[in-house]
Amino acid sequence: QQGQNYDYEVVAQQGTTEFYKGISTETYGYNGDLLGPTLTIEEGEKVEVKITNDLNEPTTFHWHGLEVAGEIDGGPLDEIQPGESRIITLEADQPAATLWYHPHVHEMTAEQVYRGLSGMLLIDSSDKEELAIPNDYGVNDIPLIFQDRLFSEDKQLNYNQLMDEDGTLGDVSIVNGTINPKLTITKPIMRFRVLNGSNARNYTFSLSNDASFTQIASDGSLLDEPVEIQELTLAASERAEILIDFSKLTAEESLAIINDEGVELLPFDVKLEDATANPTEKWTTEEPFLTPEEKEMPIEKNIELFGMMDMVTINGKKFDADRIDLRQEQGVTEVWEVYNKKDMMGGMIHPFHIHGTQFKVISRDGKEVDPSEQGLKDSVLVNPGEKVKLLVTFPEKGVYVFHCHILEHEDSGMMGQIEIY
Ligand code: C2O
Ligand code: CU
Ligand code: CU
After folding, report:
1. Which residues form the Plastocyanin-like domain (predicted)?
2. Ligand 1 in reach of 64 Cβ (< 6 A)
């Protein structure tokens, strides 16, 4: 199909990366050696995308958080074989948000993501709120993909040797694919689109000077109103957009994003061109996050997450491609209750993700959620023993999966299928 123009061409391919200077290791990437280009779709617009698999194994192209029809969602049934291409149309019929894309081949998702297949997918909008916040991509609007990796002694990424069935955790932090990153800051107010792109790790981010920062968006939309926080916790696959104000830093002061152990994940090199910060206008949404009726809706679906290692299940079952576990009508809103059942060991956090929808979190153990969760979500952290209620609507039809986003759990079958009719 030479000469044909697509809005985007995305090729999954093999490459090599020098995480450590002078030592290369085999990695996967989209259109390159590691990670992928940021794709942007305007709210309400369509883009034509040519997806190609140049790997030596099957892959899929999943648009995490995008409300597309089941047939182009890129779930585990949507394999693209080595050498194959497909042309699809992605439509952003949903609010501005920071989404992402990654492969989803059953039993190979964790390894393919670990080797480097992930990219950002942004929905842009010219809404009033969007324009009032920094939106100069690469200048004051920066995506940050946080991941952790393990390297063998000779600094090679070897997934099979490192794989842990409860989720491969690494002792090396990478940000946008870089070890020991440093980011130069030239603008006083910076917007960061933070993705926890790790296979399993939960991150709690804060600033090295303990200062507060502003969270403006959750996975799938702006928050109902910006919220000042000092800590941001993201489970695997969750996103948040935050604003950090650098204008009040004194010349000697240094600043970094750190984790809950005080480890610097991303130090900043602050070189402001002009320190006058135009404060972002605060917005508040007139409508309540949830109407009284929505809060009172009866539970229609019960989801029970259970287990650890490879003994993980949803509602007592492992994934079966030939089985439809749940059904829901297109456009009809239902309440799901997701219960993370403890085991004898006490259980563990499972980040629960649903394809094809952006939902609202109604409550955690009956309590209204924090303002930082009062925006659209597609993944939700569920603590051991906790019951989380979700308000779920699917705008499109098709078969979708829902699963734990600890990728090794997903590959071990902690996943089910829902048909939207
Ligand atoms: Cu991030 Cu099933 O996806
Ligand atoms: Cu997804
Ligand atoms: Cu899990």
Report:
1. 13-126, 297-419
2. yes
387 within ligand 1 shell (Cβ under 6 A): no
pLDDT of residue 282 exceeding 90, the answer is no
Q: In this predicted model, what pLDDT tens digit does every residue of 161-170 receive, in sequence order?
A: 888 999 999 9
Where helices occur in 265-406 by DSSP H, the ranges are 292-296
Angstrom distances, CA of residue 12 to CA of 32, 228, 364: 8, 39, 38
Query: Edge to edge, what strands does the sheet with 222-229 contain?
Result: 178-179, 172-175, 141-149, 189-196, 239-245, 213-217, 222-229
Q: Which domains does the chain have, with CATH numbers?
A: 8-125 (2.60.40.420), 141-270 (2.60.40.420), 292-420 (2.60.40.420)
Structure tokens at 356: 């094809």
Query: 171, 148 in Cβ contact below 8 A?
Result: yes
Least confident of 51-55, 126-130, 340-344: 126-130
**DSSP-derived secondary structure letter, 260:** T
DSSP 160: H
- Region 221-233 average pLDDT: 96
Residue 371 binned pLDDT confidence (cut-offs 50, 70, 90): very high
| For ligand 1, atom 3: residue with the closest CA | 64
| Nearest atom of ligand 1 to the alpha carbon of 401 | 2
Q: Identify the pLDDT of residue 1.
A: 46
Q: Ligand 1: which residue has its CA nearest to atom 1?
A: 64
Which positions ≥6 away from 186 have C-beta within 8 Å?
Answer: 139, 271, 272, 273
pLDDT per position as a tens digit, 375-389: 999 999 999 999 999
CB of residue 301 inside a 6 A radius of ligand 1: no
Cβ(231)–Cβ(258) under 8 Å?
Answer: no
**ipTM given for this complex:** 0.99
pLDDT tens digits along 323-357: 999 999 999 999 999 999 998 888 999 999 999 99
Tally of CB atoms within 10 A around 96: 23
